[in-house]
Amino acid sequence: MATASATQERAAELNVLSRKQRSLWGDALYRLFRNKAAVAGLIVIAMAFLVAIFAPFLAPFSPIEIPKNPASQMEPLWTGSKFTDPRYLLGTDFLGRDIVSRLIFASRISMVVGFVPTAIVFGLGVTVGVTAGFFGGWLDQLLMRFTDIVYAFPDFLFLLIIVASFRASPFGKLLDGLMLIFVAIAIVGWVGVARLTRGQVLALKEREFVEAARSVGATPRRIMAKHLLPNALAPLIVTAAFVVPNAMLGEATLSFLGVGIIPPTPSWGQMINEGFPLFSANPWAVLLPAICISVVMLSFTFVGDGLRDALDPRMKT
Amino acid sequence: MLKYTIRRLLLMIPTLFFVALITFALAKAAPGSPFDKNPDKPPKQEIVDRWNKFYGLDKPVPEQFVMYMSNVLHLDFGTSIRRQRPVSEILGQGFPVTAQLGAQALILALAVALPLGVISALKQNTMVDYGSLFFATVGTTIPSFVMAIFFIYIFALGLHLFPITGWGTPQHMVMPTVILALGAAAFLARITRASMLEAIRQDYVRTARSKGLREQVVIVGHVLKNAMIPVATVVGPAAAGLITGSFIIETFFSVPGIGREYVLSITALDYPVIMATTLLYAFFIVVANLSVDLVYGMLDPRIKVAK
Question: Each residue of B122-172: pLDDT tens digit?
């Protein structure tokens, strides 16, 4: 008898249908959380978010105010040099401002620049891409010609020209220059998303489930929203995971070149720009923001790679 | 094939025209003038007027654009406002430097990426593979100027192996070349690995093995030959990326190429230089994209270019 029940148990184990059922998205989530690098990336991003939100409570000093009588530029405590001060864990910058506080506040810029332009890019890109792909016609032609031009423009050059042109205007000074960076990144970025969405829609609209929907009298709007978009979603999510760090990279590079965030508001790229002339004297004022950029960007790449593998295992390379 | 090539070459013209138009419009929309860089000491109005006349800035904007474009057709790119010298002369001096930097970086990138990609595909899921994947991820993710900071800290400030800035001697060229190559190498290694893995699983490879060919012959003659097709097609964009990516590296290391000139003229609103450099960059990208499509058709007869 014992062997019989053991056999039954074994059979139940093997029975795939008795496995707890997961939805398509649940399955993807499960695969994502099994990817250690992606989970580590998610944790870092979540922490960066918390730091950005609670910056005023975490920062020991003001990131902007210059101390009354700053001593010479301080080095981080662990260097053990005579230019250290126990109040300044990571030292001070060339104006005597606390680097910990500046790094903490700078994370706000990176997080906001990562997500706001991405939202605009996707709102615009997906709308135009779905419409162009579904209806074709002049909108489609216009989109394709426009992408040809934008593709001939090196991304960053385009970004640089837009920002440099409008930096001195009143609009360029809104929100310490953030507004212009948002708009510039969105203008440069939406075309790629539109083209990707259009390609997805073109491939999907010939499929049988769309024909079936059409044959039962679904309106074009319903087909787009209920049939095309959900099926095109996976590659779009993966793209988003790479658009976000790209936007951060754009801001960091602009600020590094001195045409990004307007000082004294700190951003990591701008801290590198300000600290670089004194790099050999106090390398940590430059290395620390460089490390912050690297860690956050790597985290996004890990999450992006994880998402790609999780959402479409066939794409795995 | 010839018809397709000609059609594509003709399509380059409107693309470059619109790139010029957008750049011109943006440069014109910029507030401020290239002549009042020092707000404390604004130049006399009569001097500004004379300058405006010299650069043709007293005419209406559309007329300026038409004039500029017709000059460009005669390969006259105007005079730099910042440096008071013909733009063609400035670009002529900077271009060999940028081209050398780009060519060195491309050769280095290929020399690293191809073996790395091939080996990691042949030893899939081993430590070698994970190591090269990690290199590829880091190389494509970390921005070049951030990478440059780490390199300077280690190799210039720490080990005193290379000078930080400048150009001319081989020691000066090592760091800019390596950092510029890194991104491209990582990208190419990724593509090489993926396309090797794809080729290894093909039926013709199984056929070759079943005929009893030696593994070496199968890998070199069948797998490698086919896996190189997608790689060859991305070398063009990678090269274009190197040329445009060089302006951050050139600015960082004070390399006297056209990239650094570009960044300097952008902050000075020196738009004759901005226009000419943008057009040059756009031209490279368009040519790179076109060459990809043509090379693809030649390497892989399964793909039909003409439609």
Answer: 888 888 888 888 888 888 888 888 888 888 888 877 777 777 777 777 777
Task: Give the domain extent around B145.
Answer: 91-299
**Contact B248/A257, CB-based, under 8 Å?**
yes
Subunit contact B26:A162, Cβ cutoff 8 A: yes
> Is residue B162 within a helix (H) or strand (E), and if so which, with residue range?
none
**Backbone φ, ψ for residue B40 (5° rounding):** -75, -30
Tell me whether residue B307 is in a domain: no
State the pLDDT confidence band at B306, using cuts at 50, 70 and 90: very low
The structure tokens listed for B270 are: 């020196």
Average pLDDT score over residue span A114-132: 87
How many domains would you assign to chain B?
A: 2
Phi, psi of B79 (to 5 degrees): -115, 135
Q: Label residue A43 by pLDDT band (50, 70, 90).
A: very high
Is B218 part of a structural domain of the chain?
Answer: yes
Does residue B72 contact residue B19 with C-beta atoms inside 8 Å?
no
Same domain assignment for residues B195 and B106: yes
> Which of B9, B23, B146 should we substitute to test contact with A (largest number of A Cβ atoms within 10 Å)?
B146
Give the closest of A168, A280, A287 to B32, CB-based. A168
Same domain for B290 and B154, yes or no, is yes
pLDDT computed for residue B307 by the predictor: 40
Residue entry with tokens 């042949």: B122
**A293 in contact with chain B, both atoms CB, cutoff 8 A:** yes
Quick one: which H or E segment has residue A250? helix A229-256
pLDDT attached to residue A295: 92
Does the CB of A297 have a partner CB in chain B at under 8 Å? yes
Q: Which of B19, B38, B73 is the last residue of a domain?
A: B73
A245–B141: do the CB atoms touch at under 8 Å? Answer: yes
Say what the pTM is. Answer: 0.81
- Nearest residue in B to A245, CA atom: B141
